[in-house]
Amino acid sequence: MENQQLSDVKGKELVAAGHAFAKAIGMDTPLIEIAKMVSVLATRLDCALVRGDELQKERDALAAENVALKSAISYVCDTDNQPDYQYDGMGCGIEDRGIIDRYEAARYGWDEALERMYSEVIPCASDIETPATDAYLNAVRAEGVEILTGKLQQLIDEGVFDAKEIGVAAGAVYEGAQIAAQLRAGKDGE
Questions:
Q1: 137 and 98 assigned to the same domain
Q2: Measured distance CA(4)–CA(11) in Å, rounded
Q3: Do 117 and 79 meet the contact criterion of CB atoms below 8 Å apart?
Q4: In this predicted model, what pLDDT tens digit does every residue of 47-69 receive, in sequence order?
Q5: Three-state secondary structure string covering 2-26
Q6: Residue 145 and residue 121 share a domain
Q7: Which residue from 49, 25, 46, 28 is spatially nearest to 1, judged by alpha carbons?
């Protein structure tokens, strides 16, 4: 395998090529060829280590977000955090609002209970920020958009669309590229 070809080879293929090259090395193999192979392998290893460090940072950020989310869930599930039952004044406001229907009264009570839960028991849940999760999800969304626009571009290149359709398809490819770029930049694709 030539040195120029190795620059296009991906991870597992490079490892396989390295093993094959090592088996093929003989007494008549030029030292320069061995040095080129070692240099390519070292460069690829360096790239893999840098990417591994990036993935480690992403994993750590996601783990920190999960700790915060788990804490909020634990807080909500802990029965000791329930607000006290208010014996005095239960039902107050129903008469003031002219509610006489029992279903309407039940709905009013339910809405009031939910409002109280969200303001007293779960106020911290909406404050949790998840930038690593948001970035990951935006990257997944962008990848989906890029797959679609790539398929549309392939169909355009293959001449599948007629003259009226090609402008719409090309516009969709362009807009898809814009949306994917916005997603990758941290925007929600608006």
A1: no
A2: 15
A3: no
A4: 888 888 888 888 888 888 888 77
A5: CHHHHCCCCHHHHHHHHHHHHHHCC
A6: no
A7: 25
